[in-house]
Amino acid sequence: MAEILAKGSRWSLEQGYGTKDDLATTEDYGYMKQADPAAVSNTAIARGKPQLGTLGAGNHFLEIQAVDAVYDEKTAKAFGIDGKGQVVVMVHCGSRGLGHQVASDYIREMEKKYGFADLPDRELINAPFNSELGQKYFKAMCAGMNYAFANRQMIVHWIRDSFKKVMGTDHGMKQVYDVCHNIGKIEKHKVDGEVKELCVHRKGATRSFGPGREEVNETYREVGQPVFIPGTMGTASYVLVGTAEAEEKSWGSTAHGAGREMSRSEAIKRFRGEVVAKELEQHGILVKAASWKGIAEEHVPAYKDVDEVCRVSNEAKLGKLVARLVPLGVVKG
Asked: From CA 195, how far away is CA 302, in angstroms rounded?
């Protein structure tokens, strides 16, 4: 576990999961150098150990999709998207219980030190970045990112393996990009016309850096960073590309998903998983989940209209539309 938290995707590659090309198309090349495994509690490690290589529940998913439309052929080609009808696979998951525990541990520590009486929500508790506690949390969060990188790398490996068993080959199953969300990263941005080094926190958001930005992997530096905005298991997901305008307007950020329209508890009250699965099957979408409750939570009406979300992102130039993807089969933890 210490090696995983220190090495990220490189650990997975050393164990035979994935390829070197996967690292070339992973944000930060799959490795956060600031990570310190010693900053992660034994409780977090215990939670993460049996969950490595798993999707998790909630809005996490593995989805087999078909390209439904291409809006920017040049960028799509650079990403390896050939055109309408191509089959692709999208995975959404993160650092599992380990990352959740890291956050819980440090929220508790910050409460003890700083209190949260003046905050509207206890989870907005914080510490000065350069303080001892702030630095310790940042290093633990980076370790959580490395766990997430390793986790997704293993899942991608097994997806290829599964396709190869069924289809006889995994030829063409090139990773487009492994992109982070719900993290804080050190970046340089303009503030009142002056370039400053900032800790940019993205919650429910993802990077949308345009062409030429040094943080964008060499593979895509000329075209800009790939951006994924998933919708629901019954609608569509989108591939976008980062823009220079996003760097001016939102510190290089856009949405990382459609976003919920209703709470999970409300969705469970209103929908039955068995009925939702039958409705999806009538539309040619097969869904498999660990529970009917999980399917009910993720029903289409529980989320905002992803087409509208991506239209806004495109028109606001926070991310430029590249392709639209529709679900064929959905696996949920």
From this structure: 40
What are the structural domain ranges in the chain?
1-53+94-173, 57-92+179-333
Fold adopted by 57-92+179-333:
tRNA-splicing ligase RtcB (3.90.1860)
Instruction: Give the separation between CA 13 and CA 31, rounded to whole angstroms.
Output: 12
Q: Are strands 194-202 and 183-191 parallel, antiparallel or unpaired?
A: antiparallel
| 88 touches 81 (CB < 8 A) | yes
157 is catalytic: no
pTM: 0.95
Provide the sign of the torsion angle of the four alpha carbons 18, 19, 20, 21, taken in this order: negative
pLDDT digits (tens, 9 = 90+) for 189-202: 999 999 999 999 99
Of the candidates 302, 320, 291, the one whose C-alpha atom is nearest the C-alpha of residue 57 is 291
Q: Which of 157, 256, 283, 299 is catalytic?
A: 256
How far is it, in rounded angstroms, from Cα 201 to Cα 189?
13
Q: Kindly tell me the burial class for residue 160, based on how many C-beta atoms sit within 10 Å of its own C-beta (0-12, 13-18, 19 or more).
A: buried
Strand 61-70 and strand 320-332: pairing?
antiparallel
Q: What is the pLDDT of residues 242-267, one digit of tens each?
A: 999 999 999 999 999 999 999 999 99
Beta bridge partners of 226: 241
Task: Copy the structure tokens of residue 301.
Answer: 């009406």
- Residue ranges of alpha helices (H) inside the chain are 2-7, 9-14, 20-24, 42-48, 73-79, 96-114, 132-167, 244-249, 264-270, 273-282, 292-297, 306-315
